[in-house]
């Protein structure tokens, strides 16, 4: 079974530029999450999709971050304009059934963003 | 608000047993998960506790006490490959099931 795919793996941009990240979850997984992990900290949830609808985006900085999940499969996360404090690893995760017995989330390898 | 506290670093010897503690604060609680993350890698799921008690999976066990807002991860027969960061994370519910993570415990295994 293929895991969660993300691209690009690394991205370096200057502040005020825009950037987009792509995620392809595990086939059949209805729920998709985007997390931001700053160096030395735990992942922080940015947004959660159930199929192609948003369940929780309470921690998404909506003035600069946006995300979409078309057709309930792939997802993109965009930052425009980027700030220095956006430097982090952006992790995508998916889960089969949010009400499942084990609540396991499967994480992709992440995109490491450096804003200079 | 929601928060989890865990030690920033723990050192143990190969072959030994180590316990990583986690305390949490939240207005709503559904369960506690543990994830392992090697440097530069993705977090991988280790365990989930929704009810009080001990869950065992091979060399790893996880414990939860809802009344004490406390849990721990127990790693036995430590191997060098267990050197990694370990995160406790909780589900607070409220119609969503994204995880709230602690800051992580860096486990150092010495030969």
What does this structure look like?
The complex is a heterodimer of chains A (116) and B (111). With 116 residues, chain A is mainly beta. Chain A has strands spanning 5-7, 10-13, 19-24, 31-37, 44-50, 53-56, 65-68, 75-79, 88-95, 106-107, 111-115. In chain A, strands 2, 4, 5, 6, 9, 10 and 11 form a 7-stranded mixed beta sheet that branches. A 4-stranded antiparallel beta sheet of chain A has the order 1-3-8-7, with no helix packed on it. The radius of gyration of chain A is 14 Å and the shape is globular. The N and C termini of chain A lie far apart (37 Å). The relative contact order of chain A is 0.33. The mean pLDDT of chain A is 93. Chain B is mainly beta and 111 residues long. Chain B contains no helices and 11 strands. In chain B, the strands form 2 sheets. In chain B, strands 2, 4, 5, 9, 10 and 11 form a 6-stranded mixed beta sheet that branches. The radius of gyration of chain B is 14 Å and the shape is globular. The mean pLDDT of chain B is 93. The A-B interface holds A 4, 31, 33, 40-45, 48, 55-56, 91, 93, 95, 98, 102-110 and B 31, 33, 41-45, 48, 50, 87, 89, 91, 95-104.
């Amino acid at each position: 079974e293929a895991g969660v795919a993300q691209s690009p793996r690394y991205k370096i941009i200057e502040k005020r530029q825009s950037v987009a990240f792509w995620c392809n979850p595990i086939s059949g997984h209805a729920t998709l999450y985007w997390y931001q992990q700053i160096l030395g900290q735990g992942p922080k949830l940015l947004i959660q999709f159930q199929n192609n609808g948003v369940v929780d985006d309470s921690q998404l900085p909506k003035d600069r971050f946006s995300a979409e999940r078309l057709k309930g499969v792939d997802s993109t996360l965009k930052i425009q304009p980027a700030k220095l404090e956006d430097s982090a690893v952006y992790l995508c995760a998916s889960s089969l059934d949010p009400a499942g017995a084990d609540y396991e989330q499967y994480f992709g390898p992440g995109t490491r963003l450096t804003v200079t | 608000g929601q928060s989890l506290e865990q030690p920033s670093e723990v050192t143990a010897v190969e072959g030994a047993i180590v316990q990583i503690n986690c305390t949490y604060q939240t207005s709503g609680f559904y369960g506690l998960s543990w994830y392992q993350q090697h440097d530069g890698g993705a977090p991988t799921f280790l365990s989930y506790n929704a009810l009080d008690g001990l869950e065992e999976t091979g060399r790893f066990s996880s414990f939860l006490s809802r009344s004490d807002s406390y849990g721990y991860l127990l790693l036995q027969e430590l191997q060098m490959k267990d050197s990694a960061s370990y995160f406790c994370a909780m589900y607070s519910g409220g119609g969503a099931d994204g995880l709230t993570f602690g800051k992580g415990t860096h486990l150092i295994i010495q030969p």
